[in-house]
Amino acid sequence: MDALPEGDNWLAMSSRTLARLHAAYLIAEDPQRRLDVHKAATLMHQVSLVQHILTDPNLKKVLIGDEVGLGKTIEAGLLIRRLLDQNAAIRVLYLAPARLVSNVVNELRDKLDLDARKWSAGNSGDARLEADRLVVASINKAVFGDNPKMVVNSGPWDVIFVDECHHLSDWGISGGKPNQSFRLVQQLVNCQPADGRLFLMSGTPHQGSEARFKNLLRLLADDGQTLESVAGKVIYRTKDRVRDWRGQPLFPSRQINPPIVVSLGGAYEKWYEGICQLYDAPTNGSSSRNRATGWAKGQALQWAASSVQAGLGFLVRLSLRRLGWDITHKTLHDAIGALRPYRGGPADESIPSLYARLLKQIGLQKESDDTVSDLEELDDEVWTPDPVQLSELLREGIALLQTEAADAKWEALCKVIEAAGDEKIVFFAQPVETVGVVATFLKKRFGVDPAIIIGNQSDDERLSQVRQFQSPEGPRFLVSSRAGGEGLNMQRARRLVHLDVPWNPMDLEQRVGRVHRFGSRKTIIVDTTVVAGSREVDMYRIAREKLALISSQLDPEQFEILFSRVMSLVPPKELEGVIGGAPPGPLGLQESNAIGKLVTEGFKTWNSFDDTYRHEAEKIRAIDPGAASWSDLATFLTRYGDASSTDDVGLPTFEFRDDEIVAVEEKLPALEFGSKIYACGDTGGLPIDSLNGRSVYSLGLNLPEVTEILRSRFIPDKLVGCALLRLDSDIQSALNVESIIGLLFFIRQTIHYELGNSREVALSLVGVALSSSGDVTELTSDRQAEVVRSITKAQRSKEPASPEIRMKMKAVENEMIPKLRMPSDEEISRGIRHAVWPIAAIAFV
Fold first, then answer.
1. 740 and 761: one domain?
2. What is the mean pLDDT of residues 189-196?
3. Mean local confidence (pLDDT), 398-405
4. Are 605 and 565 in contact (CB under 8 A)?
């Protein structure tokens, strides 16, 4: 162009072109949206996962197997946010266990501004399944009664998430034995449109059963059966492998202390062995010797090992379930009275009232829809305990409550509590009776009420207890039953105490995952109390010794992490069968060998699992984060948004020092923009210190006021296209091209077409340098970033470029556009196409 519109000039034209290039660079060179502002922490492993999934057309169905504590709910929310940005008309169903629904809804609403509706039991839900576009639903309610048909008919759902998907079970070798949850998800997936998406999420997806795991993977298969294409659809990452944006670790290590073995005395050991014998005895003298299953016995022994109160409560419920006793039975009457205060009831509760509550709880367990229960699992075996033996065990349990055995474990805990100083501590037990007695003990000994998590609380009550504990001024202790083992964040504490040992090792890992997560500040310290003479002492000693032997060639410092992963792959039912089926007393050589075999198989499974799926995590880590930086954004707003720099602001962050994460004060540059002060850097969703008494906000490309400036510079009111610049040493150094005469920049939009729909999967800035000899050099990402930063501050020229240069640049532009638009054969087969626009021409004069 030789002439400009009246009133325009080449200096102004150059300024508009450079501004457009700068805006395009910020938008196109931030593919992972690092420069957006989020209420949730923008962790690299989370946003990289989203980028990886949404740019690969083969990842319509994915299992996100990130380790417990890596933030799968936020990952899900980021995926939902991006998918809704692409198509606001899609419908998203997020299925979660009942106890997690409120937490998921709150995270999506509060941290990601998503209008998530809740569908759960009771009156707290606000969703309309047939109409709402983003519903978080209780899978417990969804499979109850006639609800499965209603849920399926409410579809089709374009996007389905299944949280804690390890609860979906199909034990058939090649499928065919699904539980209700598995069957429901299968039906929902079958009803999805051809381009529908499925996201399965679990920190422990394998669980030691190869058949169950493969059947879970079949949900990801294109045909619902074959597994050849599934490996790349499983994303498995661990805490020790993820990093922050600066390449620093995000999580501290673990210190697992040796178990504290507490003797409860001879009377207790006799009672414990008596419970074991109760389940081993023949039924009614039958020659068939119809005994209870090993895992059923295991449950009784675990409750008895947790606390005398829990063991007695188990036996009381057993007499109600199996023998049909009522309060006219004197021994049961006395045992019910001895349980008081029971599960939040008053110490002087009448026995008929408590009896009625017990019956109701047993009924809820049998007919549960959305109840978060702390009751033991019910078995289907036709088995009846000997009434004489059971009566004697009830009497022995009542007597034990009056002895030191009732509080001996908690007295031993005091040494752990004293060693912790003023630090907060999380205590975990399986039975709610143990939670109650420990909470009472802590209040009596230390004078403060602990926070409590138990199964019969409402969602609001449970979350309120966690929020109080997470508050710096909140209670020092939190005591939880197994109802708090999944989905809750308790990382204000770094100390955790197992008050008992579940025989399902996955439960141990889920517990530790409540404190070992993003925001943990120091090495996680885990203590365990076990009762002398119980199976737990031998079980974990044998397991640790065996794993230490077979993994001796690995890094000893990684043993604790390895132990938790390997044990999470040991089949729980088989482990319970070995331990529960053993005779009274210490575990013998036969049981020791059987446990050793399970650990060996678990180690092999972990090795295989790790080898098969780790490469997908490495691909995610290698994703290009883009070249745009916070300083590029600051420069842009200073030039074009009347922003001005001000004093740095403080951000509380963390770094490793001597194997611990310690709090440090990081300084971030700040901008005064509009009437507010903004921190110009990655705050990770963390609170920012005020500056001179004024609030400080997080800056981001997605702020409306920033978006408006980007739009006005990218699409200005006046003509734009060419900038005339003086070639200086900075530009020459950044380009490293001989006899440079100009630069051309293009926006390349990558689009995926499928079933009549299209969506953007990538946006990139492509720059090429032209030499006087006619050579054309495409700029690498790093060099392009240097060039953009150099030319946006270069001296402009008043004179137009020579006709010869203009002709060469026009010819190259005409050649580059079809070249950049041309998809490869592979891209054509995948429905990938490219749209290309020339953004800026830079001529050096």
1. yes
2. 93
3. 94
4. no
Query: What is the rounded average pLDDT of the residues 567-587?
Result: 77
> Is pLDDT of 719 > 90?
no
Q: Are residues 685 and 793 in the same domain?
A: no
Q: What is the pLDDT of residue 364?
A: 56
Range list of β-strands (E), 463-583:
477-480, 495-498, 524-531
φ, ψ at 566 (rounded to 5°): -65, -45
Q: Indicate whether 144 and 118 sit together in one domain.
A: yes
> Considering 700, 726, 741, which residue would you say is the last residue of a domain?
700
Distances (CA, A) of 232 to 3, 236, 615, 617: 56, 10, 9, 10
Examine residue 324 and state whether it is found in any structural domain, yes or no.
no
Domain count, the chain: 3
Q: Does any domain span residue 610?
A: no
| Residue whose structure tokens are 């392009």 | 784
What domain range includes position 783?
10-25+714-844
Mind listing the pLDDT tens digit for each residue in 218-237? 999 877 677 777 878 998 88
What residues have CB less than 8 Å from 393, skipping those under 6 apart?
A: 271, 274, 275, 278, 315
Nearest of 363, 353, 290 to residue 320 by alpha carbon: 363
Residue 235 to residue 65: CA distance in whole angstroms: 6
What pLDDT does residue 320 have?
93
Q: Interior CA angle at 268 toward 264 and 271, to 5°? A: 160
| Helix (H/G/I), strand (E/B), else coil: 159 | strand
What is the rounded distance in angstroms from the CA atom of residue 669 to the CA atom of residue 696?
11
Is position 620 within any domain? no
Q: What is the dihedral of CA 240, 243, 247, 252, to 10 degrees?
A: -50
Q: Collect all residues with Cβ–Cβ distance below 8 Å to 633 and sequence separation of at least 6.
A: 26, 35, 680, 699, 701, 706
- The tokens describing 276, both together, are 């074991």
Terminal Cα distance for the chain, rounded: 15
Enumerate residues 6+ apart whose C-beta is below 8 A from 623. Answer: 32, 48, 51, 52
Percent of the residues in the chain that have a pLDDT greater than 90, as a whole number: 45
Specify the pTM: 0.73
For the cut 50, the answer to whether the pLDDT of residue 289 exceeds it is no
- Here the CATH number for the domain that contains residue 101 is 3.40.50.10810
Task: Label residue 287 by pLDDT band (50, 70, 90).
Answer: very low
Last residue of a domain, one of 235, 265, 283: 235
What pLDDT does residue 557 have?
59
Phi, psi of 449 (to 5 degrees): -80, 125
- The dihedral sign for the CA sequence 513, 515, 519, 524: negative
Q: 655 and 769 in one domain?
A: no
Alpha helix (H) residue ranges in 622-660: 630-640
The verdict on 740 and 679 lying in the same domain is no
Q: pLDDT tens for residues 464-479?
A: 999 999 888 999 999 9
With tokens 């290590």, the residue in question is 253
Three-state SS string over 222-261 comes to CCCCCCCCCHHHEECCCCCCCECCCCCECCCCEEECCCEE
- Give the C-alpha distances (Å, rounded to integers) separating 520 from 72, 497, 513, 514, 591: 16, 16, 11, 10, 38
Token pair recorded at residue 715: 């699409």
Both tokens of 256, joined, read 């697992």
User: Residue for token digits 């390997």?
Assistant: 566
| One domain, residues 689 and 741 | no
Mark whether 74 and 195 lie in a shared domain.
yes
Is 38 a member of any domain? yes
235-244 burial by CB neighbour count: b if 16+ within 10 A, else e? bbbbbebbeb
Place of tokens 């957006």: 36
Give the length of the chain.
845
